[in-house]
Amino acid sequence: MSGRRNRIACVWLAVAIVMAHGTAPAAVLATVQGLRAGGCPRATGMSPLRVKPALSRAAEWWSQGSAAGEAAIRAGYAAERIAGLHIDGDESTAAALLRERYCNLFSDAALTDVGIYQRGPDTWLVLAAPFIALRPGDPRVMQRLLTLVNQARAQARRCGTRAMPAAPAVRLDPRLSAAAAGHAVDMARRDYFAHVDPENHSPADRVRRTGYDARVVGENLAVGAHSETEVVEGWLHSPGHCENLMDARFTDMGVGYAGAEPPRAGEYWVQVLALPLPVRPSEQPPS
Question: For the chain, what is the mean pLDDT?
Fold first, then answer.
């Protein structure tokens, strides 16, 4: 079992625009909405940005020195991605420069929400893609994770300094998934991140409670990832997690995830890997 943590952080984008003085926040917002509605070539027909009070608070705190992403977390907005624009200029200059430099940003369909704050001649805009939690136990998510893990196991790779050969595919086991899901929900509910829970139960303990008799148990954790691809890539780039995932002894896998609240917006992910004990002759089904 790897004791290393795999924290996958959101990516924040912050840019600044410095212009001449005089732009009102309503005018800037109208300019941005116009660019999004068709003023930018790739943005024709896009829905207008939704003004969110939490992002407006984030814009105010950003103006006071906080990073845009940190300000959004503080305001209670769970974001997958943030873009911050600081505008100091008259309306015509602002419109021209925004169109020239940031059409790619305004054409991003994932950025659906906006907050705005003005102080003196300066305006701060915070655009965001909201975090949307995955539906717990979605069989499509679990199947996608299984596919990605087995694709990874099919290729030899280096896990840190250790060369790991290709390994046979694992199969999903509902008991291991129950153990994984229970731990993910518990971590999300009680706001901790560890292989051993506050009552000192280990991964092997949780697997045993499901009725799965294991010879070997491994567990990988992650928090903050927003997709199956992101979490598997994170594990493969962490030597200890990678070794667990590539361990040829494991034949079975369970996966679970649960939505995290800010400031850990994203999902808690748990992967349980196991090798069952051999079936004793007395337990063999009759032929």
Answer: 83
